[in-house]
Amino acid sequence: MTAESKATPEAVARHYDYITPFYEIIASRSLHFGYWPPGETGGSFGEAQQRFTELMIKLLGSQKGHHVLDVGCGLGEPATRLAQSTGCRVEGITISPRQAAQAERWASLHEMSGQTTFRCGDAAALPFAAGSFDEAWALESLFHMPDQAKVLREVARVLHPGGRLLVADIVLSDKATPEDRSFLQHSFVARSIITAEDYPYLIRDTGFELEQILDITPNVLETFNALATAVQGKEAEVRRAYSDEFLAAIQEQWARITETARRCMGYVVITAKRS
């Protein structure tokens, strides 16, 4: 589901600018996987995305008056809901100027402009002073980063000591072949997808103390069925927004992504504290 094949920062921005209307048609403005509680399937993709956001808000543990950094904020819906739910202040950063502007409009629509700010910038060179934030999260954004360790060190710099980090990320299993890795990285416009076993070392080497690695793979895999169902139900709208060729390519590629991901992809949520 890519508009670009090489995951440079500029390519990631162009990809999301291109594909965002598609996700808005079939689901919501939250550009992440859905979440299904144990034993549950079905339901809409958009509803499952909202459940995912609510789970991340709970795991982050932010409170009123706290200052939170959203690394890779997308269209700002998760950040806006975080501010609404907890009373915290959120600053989001994205590589796409268009996304930053859309996020600002979304927050204004929900009367959250006073608690949220969104800007275009580089996550590897954050435009914030040291110790500026109480918490930070990165929801499905680290795999886009050219240097994940550099980004996490920057996040550690702008968090105060003891500040909390939450990362939600796709990972590869040991069943993944080099071809699988290349295909999934291309499909998700990813610079690097690491394994769950690599994450503790990445976290500890970048200024954090690991709290928990939560494997929610069984709870997010329904995303693949839910998205396919959503596309089927919105075919006419997708055609109008894009083209017949786009719709056919999406359906064909999503079938291959689903098969590969179910065989060798996982999903983890990491919580950690700034050392």
Description:
The chain is of the alpha/beta class and 275 residues long. It has one domain: Rossmann fold (3-Layer(aba) Sandwich), CATH 3.40.50. Helix content is 47%, strand content 20%. The chain has 11 helices and 7 strands. It has a 7-stranded mixed sheet. Helix 2 packs across helix 3, helix 6 crosses helix 11 and helix 9 runs antiparallel to helix 11.
The biggest beta sheet reads: 7 strands, mixed
Helix content: 40-55%
User: Can you tell me the residue ranges where pLDDT is under 50 for at least 5 consecutive residues?
Assistant: 1-5
Going by CATH, what is the homologous superfamily?
A: Vaccinia Virus protein VP39
Silhouette: globular
**CATH class descriptor name:** Alpha Beta
Count of β-strands: 7
Do you know the CATH topology?
Rossmann fold
Characterize the quaternary organization of these chains. single chain
CATH architecture: 3-Layer(aba) Sandwich
N-to-C SSE string, H for helix and E for strand: HHEHEHEEHEHHEHHHHE
Average per-residue pLDDT, rounded, comes to: 92
Distance, first to last CA: 38 Å
What's the tally of helices? 11
Count of domains = 1
Q: Major sheet: order of its strands?
A: 3-2-1-4-5-7-6
Note the beta-strand portion: 15-25%
Rg, nearest Å: 18 Å
Counting helices, strands and paired strands, the structural category is alpha/beta
Summarize this entry quickly:
This protein is α/β, with parallel strands linked by helices and 275 residues long. It has one domain (9-271): Vaccinia Virus protein VP39 (Rossmann fold), CATH 3.40.50.150. It has 11 helices and 7 strands.
